[in-house]
Design goal:
This protein has 133 residues and is α+β, with helices and mostly antiparallel strands. The protein has one domain: 2,3-Dihydroxybiphenyl 1,2-Dioxygenase, domain 1, CATH 3.10.180.10. The protein is built from 3 helices and 8 strands; from the N terminus they run βαβββαβαβββ. The chain has an 8-stranded mixed beta sheet. The chain starts with a strand and ends with a strand.
Length: 133
């Protein structure tokens, strides 16, 4: 099997600090990693849950995909990150199965990972991120 586990559930938010405070107060969660990903125009905070993360995302510029998603659909679930051993192999397998890639080849992601995104139109309405650590 190419998928090894759920890497993260990404939630798009307008106010990252308010979202972090909410998860701290509601669940006792703590921020395990925080990073600005310039290439995607986002700032993220990762809250560790077992071997996975809740990824809170906020746009850092108005033309970022996350800013556009919030403008179109409001805050909420943005994508699911699937952990894989080999991002290139998983990308090729998904394309062969009929998925529509956003990224034609794996690229650098946050935390030093390698990632590739798949369009929701080819993945039953879910934006998928393949994540190789």
């Amino acid at each position: 099997m190419l998928l090894t586990e759920i890497d993260h559930i990404a939630i798009a938010v307008k106010d990252l600090e308010a979202a972090i405070t909410y998860y701290q107060n509601a669940f006792g969660a703590t921020v395990d990693h925080r990073e600005i990903v310039e290439s995607d125009g986002v700032e993220e905070a990762l809250l560790k849950v077992a071997e996975s993360y809740i990824q809170l995302l906020t746009p850092t510029r108005p033309d970022s995909p996350v800013a556009k998603a919030i403008e179109k659909r409001g805050e909420g679930l943005h994508h699911i990150g699937y952990r894989v051993n080999n991002c290139g192999e998983a990308l090729a397998a998904m394309i062969a199965a009929g998925a529509t890639p956003i990224d034609k080849a794996p690229r650098p992601g946050s935390r030093g990972t390698t990632v590739a995104f798949m369009h929701p139109k080819g993945s039953f309405g879910t934006l998928i991120e393949l994540v190789q650590e």
